[in-house]
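Researcher: Checking consistency across runs. Here is BZIP transcription factor again:
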Amino acid sequence: MCPNRVEELESRVQELEASVEGLTDELVECKVRIRELENAVDEDIGFGSEDAESGDDIETAEPSVGAETIDGETGEPFGAAESPAETEAEATKTEGADSENNTDDSDSDIIIA
């Protein structure tokens, strides 16, 4: 193989790795947003308040800390591919989104996506 071809292939690999990282981040953000929307819908329907009032030990959709769930698409433990920095960044994004959602909910019943 000529050196130019090797450089082209290495460049292409780097581009593909960057694309995979970007898509993975986007997928994680989408999953977080879907989870937030599901929780909001559950609260609107009344699932959240009934469980809290009845005191039943019903498992929620969210795993407890340290619990290991299986990602339906890959079969890997959920979050296994995420680094601690990605997890921390996701938590920060979630906190920011929660504060925005709190102000929107108090103004009206219309959810702005």
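Researcher: Does this match what you'd expect to see?
Model: One thing to look at in this run: The helical segments are 3-45, 47-54, 84-107.
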